[in-house]
Each structure stands twice: as C-alpha cells, then as structure tokens.
Amino acid sequence: MNIISTLWGIVVLLLTILALFPFLGWANWFILVLAVIGLIIGAFGKHKTGMLLNGLAIVIACLRLSIGGGII
User: Fold this and answer.
1) Per-residue pLDDT tens over the stretch 37-63
2) How far apart are alpha carbons 42 and 54 in whole angstroms?
3) How far apart are CA 36 and CA 9, in angstroms?
4) Domain map of the chain by residue range?
5) Exposed/middle/buried for 50, CB within 10 Å: 0-12, 13-18, 19+?
6) CA-CA distances (angstroms) from residue 17 to 24, 41, 45, 46?
7) Tens digit of pLDDT for each residue in 2-24?
8) More exposed terminus of the chain, fewer Cβ within 10 Å: N or C?
9) CA angle, residues 30, 49, 55, in degrees to nearest 5
10) Which one, of 64, 55, 52, lies nearest residue 18 by Cα?
C-alpha cells in the first residue's frame, strides 16, 4: 500500500504544481479529492511517505484555493 500511496502522492503533487498556473485553480478541487484518497490509502501502509506527500498536496491545494477565493 505504501508504494501505491507514494506514487499516487507524486502524481498528485505534479498536478498540484500544474494547478498553480493562472486559470487552472479550479483543478485544485479535484486534486483535493485525489489527495484525500491517497491519504486514506497511505494510512494502511507501514511507512508514512505517501501520507506526507498527499498531505503536502492537500495543504498546497488549500492554500491556493484560499488565495484564489475558492475556500472561504
């Protein structure tokens, strides 16, 4: 489960970086869903690397949404 969560977290972080560009901020809503799924998958593994990557993606996406006015 840890390998799946880590790979999932890497993909989600790459999507998060892509969503930092202007006019792509709406993608953060989808990234939040994907990151939460990865966080849940990572909770079942021994190592917490996947959980950290997905948690970081959640924090970045939430910050980007709050700056853009998506989360009040």
Assistant:
1) 999 999 998 888 999 999 999 999 999
2) 8
3) 10
4) 2-67
5) buried
6) 10, 22, 25, 27
7) 899 999 999 999 999 999 888 88
8) C
9) 35
10) 64
